[in-house]
Here is the input.
Amino acid sequence: MKGRSDGGQKKRLIALVCVAAVVLVFVYLFYGSSDHRASAIEYGRKLGLGGDDDDTKQDDTSSSFGIDDGFTPRSFPVCDDRHSELIPCLDRNLIYQMRLKLDLSLMEHYERHCPPAERRFNCLIPPPNGYKVPIKWPKSRDEVWKVNIPHTHLAHEKSDQNWMVVKGDKINFPGGGTHFHYGADKYIASMANMLNYPNNVLNNGGRLRTVFDVGCGVASFGGYLLSSDILTMSLAPNDVHQNQIQFALERGIPASLGVLGTKRLPYPSRSFELAHCSRCRIDWLQRDGILLLELDRVLRPGGYFAYSSPEAYAQDEEDLRIWREMSALVERMCWKIAAKRNQTVIWQKPLTNDCYLEREPGTQPPLCRSDNDPDAVWGVNMEACITSYSDHDHKTKGSGLAPWPARLTSPPPRLADFGYSTGMFEKDTELWRQRVDTYWDLLSPRIESDTVRNIMDMKASMGSFAAALKEKDVWVMNVVPEDGPNTLKLIYDRGLMGAVHSWCEAFSTYPRTYDLLHAWDIISDIKKKGCSEVDLLLEMDRILRPSGFIIIRDKQRVVDLVKKYLKALHWEEVGTKTDSDSNQDSDNVVFIVQKKLWLTSESLRDME
Here is the structure.
């Protein structure tokens, strides 16, 4: 009996120890996670970049962020540090977790796959340890802070190609590339010389303005074109060369994540004067040339494709085979060689439909069906067919665009596609010029001439907001909602750039991409679609740089909503102004906020 009694006491003791352990674990997880978020903006306050005492007293009592029940959280959870570079719709972990069956040979794993609502990260993305306000443009073209993108593998992997070099606390960009080790500037001048352009300047007197660089690396090609008034959409996937686009954006160079896979690129037809591939490792012959035909779709009449690759010059059997087959394909597409020198060939697309109509019946690839809208891009599959010109474009024998910079304010020829008049266009241009002046008056206490570089207009309409910024040293990603008038082609016709997107989903870019977001009615629109306004606010916070700005032009209800979340998002009000213009949205309010710089407690401890 005595032995049994001792055993019972031991069992009770073990049970008590287990219960105590469970309680301690619970307390640690609960208060530890609270401490993970406590003092989140302490670092920002130390740097004098915003913050107040109340901001550190965070409340993590709820993970429900609904707004209809009247509850507004005083804080959002902070994502784990390993998510500091999270791109929700390009998240490989999501692909693995959801066991998506994707065709790797078609690059489907690099295309957009967005998480369902129950798998979204409803938390704030933390910056990396020691994050600094980015170096200002134009100095940033050549150097960035290493702590902001703490990845140096490309510097070692591409050390013989001068992509990037680590020097102390910075990463330098000498301007090299896989095909132009000795500098993009010399390579660009060589291309201009091949095309017999005056003074070896590739913009050809403003006639060549928009460029598409596929497989762009760290976008030095596009970065060096900016000095010639050429705007480049630099595109690359989040592949084995991870962070290449992140480096480009940190440098202040226009760039976007994407891939030539199965879906159309998010750009309308006839957007670019030049497409460029420098050893971009793309199999242009696959699937009946479908990827080359997608380039053909986005090239303007008479546009060029510059191709620098071993197939253009090597003499081994395999490269010669690829060259013969590719030459035959582009000939059937009615492209002609404009120039060929050393390791580069430049093909030119026809100006009219004449060549297409003269092809033998049954020639492949075929012309696209008449009901195939070349400007429908959101979620639309590519097709292996040639996009011919409309009767109007065929007769015009070209795009009919003015040279840059007159192109920016000249009525685009495709205005008629929307029933817009020249008067409407000119009125819109002037209206947004006045509005941008008002914005900068409100921002003036907080910004200098070099404070803002990367800008996004989340609902760009005809691009007049971006046009009003011409005299400022900035670039604008003009986003056109997928369900509205597809005015993106007007934006490209003005010599600007952008993409089609649905704001019910995350944008294909890294965290901390933009210095300024312009949100005109976009928050009101998202509610009408039945999507979450709070999800959108969290996405805006994700893509906005610390110390960056958001200009909200929306209804008073939306401004009141955003004000409820200022502390939770670590945003600070900069200024408010009632809309005073006579346009249809004159009941709107202009509300400007600034994002504070903050770090997690773990990051602060690591730094110390």
